[in-house]
Backbone:
């Protein structure tokens, strides 16, 4: 019968069992598989020249894409919430586009635009000596594209919630727009922005599909950690694939911790 | 004129009055430029490429048997997955909001793991877990089941995170009233809780569906690119590798339209539910004066109820 405690236990078993099987077992397995033969094989794989290069390239992606999308995201959120400019609805839906698109489709769009063989921008950029496809600039463009919405989406609700009374007070007291932003608005929205930055960073660190299409998979040159995982798996170099995977999984866990921390800060 | 006003230090008073307008104009220009160069231009190139050899060729590419097979698999697997995750996601949201058990905080945090973990890593883990080296001796890698399991993994958080806030906000009065009138647990769920959660559930399912339609990394290694296991995104990547960029673009346009429809659906649901809330006069406004009173009353009732149970 529907004894409340029986049904409660039933739901617990169902829900937690699902999480356990779908998330925790796989997560545990990756650590077990990687360190099965000790710490040396995965460590060697990551510290190999190709592994280190992949790590360096991944960090370069983060260093370029995250600041750009953060500045854009905060500016765009201010525009959407505070200025209700004409065309806000259109801008808002364009920002959601990367969420609706397959990473492969994003990669393909950039591939077609920057193709040296008949792309709209490829040939003239090639003449100017700029190589976009199969090199770092294309991969950066792909990273920016896939991670574009996060900061905007996290900042907009916070801006709406804080209202603009304090900003108005600041400007009545003689602060200019710049001072109002740095001293009043930014401190009030910082945890929301930080949350968006964490999501952006996680996405850029692990992006595979879009970057894969434009990278050309040149190991030691255009391989990020995510591409390094796939390449090593396909070449039966399992320690390499697992080593890089564990590194990415640890970064994912750090992301979760940061998200948790920031959510609490935001609620406080 | 405008460039002049962008230097506020020279005429502070005039600048203060005019800066918002000019700043907004400049800001809007920059935002539109950023979006155009980075997002719209590539998309325009994609659309143009898909039609570059005429409508007939577009249609041929989109209706090729392999393209249709891939799309059918993508849509079918995504439907199965959102139904499964709709069910388990609702249970998990309920457990996280209404139940108390040791390790609840950890479960709440770990729900977002699929958002944080790179998809290619998920694929590698899944193939080790359910492939030929499976520690349980269960091997369904490179089958259609693998497509479903990979999509289950990556779309898990959507429904939980969409239903959770609705459950937190929900007034417990109606449930108490129903219980005092003699309704059983299941009746209360079916007649009261479920209808209230429906907007969140629908939005979460639509978001999960959009994500599943485009998923690539997690299915790539685990389900592979065989004739009967390749989803649309894998099919597109194969077309690119064989040099058929126009065909890849055509299939991409179809896939993109499908996911855009999902997002339109989400925004319709959100608009509908916010209008619905306003007209029913429930206190869903996050006004600081209103909310604490309501929630402290309901949590007091919650405590009482727990005491009775013990």
Residues:
């Amino acid at each position: 019968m529907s004894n409340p405690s029986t049904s409660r236990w039933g739901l617990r078993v169902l829900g937690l069992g699902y999480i356990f099987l779908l998330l925790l077992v796989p997560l545990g397995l990756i650590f077990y598989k990687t360190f099965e033969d000790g710490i040396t094989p995965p460590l060697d794989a990551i510290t190999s020249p190709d592994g280190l290069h992949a790590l360096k390239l991944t960090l370069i992606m983060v260093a370029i894409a995250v600041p750009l999308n953060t500045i854009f995201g905060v500016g765009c959120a201010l525009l959407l919430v505070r200025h209700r400019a004409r065309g806000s609805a259109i801008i808002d839906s364009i920002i959601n586009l990367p969420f609706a698109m397959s990473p492969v489709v994003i990669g393909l769009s950039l591939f077609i635009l920057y193709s040296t063989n008949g792309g709209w921008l490829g040939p003239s950029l090639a003449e100017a000596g700029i190589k976009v496809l199969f090199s770092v600039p294309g991969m950066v463009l792909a990273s920016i594209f896939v991670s574009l919405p996060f900061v905007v989406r996290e900042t907009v609700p916070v801006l709406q919630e804080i209202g603009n009374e304090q900003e108005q007070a600041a400007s009545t007291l003689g602060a200019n727009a710049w001072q109002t932003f740095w001293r009043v608005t930014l401190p009030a929205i910082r945890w929301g922005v930080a949350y968006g930055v964490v999501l952006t960073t996680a996405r850029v660190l692990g992006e595979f599909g879009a970057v894969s299409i434009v990278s050309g998979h040149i190991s030691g040159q255009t391989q990020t950690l995510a591409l390094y995982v796939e390449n090593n798996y396909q070449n039966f170099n399992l320690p390499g694939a697992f080593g890089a995977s564990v590194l990415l999984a640890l970064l994912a866990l750090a992301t979760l911790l940061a998200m948790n921390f920031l959510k609490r800060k935001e609620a406080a | 004129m405008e460039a002049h006003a962008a230097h506020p230090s020279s005429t502070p008073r005039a600048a203060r009055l005019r800066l918002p307008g000019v700043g907004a104009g400049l800001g809007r220009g920059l935002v539109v430029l950023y979006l155009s160069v980075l997002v719209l231009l590539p998309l325009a190139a994609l659309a143009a490429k898909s039609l570059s050899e005429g409508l007939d060729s577009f249609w041929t590419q989109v209706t090729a048997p392999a393209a249709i097979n891939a799309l059918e698999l993508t849509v079918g697997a995504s439907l199965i997955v959102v139904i499964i995750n709709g069910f388990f996601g609702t249970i998990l949201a309920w457990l996280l909001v209404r139940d108390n058990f040791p390790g609840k905080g950890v479960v709440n945090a770990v729900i977002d793991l699929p958002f944080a973990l790179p998809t290619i890593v998920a694929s590698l883990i899944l193939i080790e877990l359910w492939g030929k080296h499976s520690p349980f001796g269960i091997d369904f890698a490179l089958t259609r089941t693998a497509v479903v399991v990979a999509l289950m993994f990556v779309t898990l958080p959507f429904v939980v995170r969409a239903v959770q806030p609705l459950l937190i906000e929900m007034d417990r009065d109606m449930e108490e009233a129903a219980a005092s009138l003699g309704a059983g647990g299941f009746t209360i769920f079916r007649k009261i809780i479920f209808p209230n959660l429906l907007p969140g559930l629908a939005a979460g399912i639509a978001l999960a569906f959009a994500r599943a339609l485009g998923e690539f990394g997690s299915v790539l290694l685990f389900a592979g690119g065989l004739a009967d296991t390749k989803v649309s995104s894998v099919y597109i990547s194969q077309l690119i590798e064989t040099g058929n960029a126009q065909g890849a673009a055509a299939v991409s346009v179809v896939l993109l339209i499908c996911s855009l429809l999902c997002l339109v659906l989400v925004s319709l649901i959100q608009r509908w539910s916010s209008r619905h809330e306003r007209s029913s006069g429930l206190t869903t406004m996050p006004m600081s004066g209103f909310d604490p009173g309501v929630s402290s009353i309901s949590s007091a009732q919650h405590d009482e109820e727990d005491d009775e149970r013990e």
Remarks:
- Residues 1-19, 278-310 of chain B have pLDDT under 50 and may be disordered.
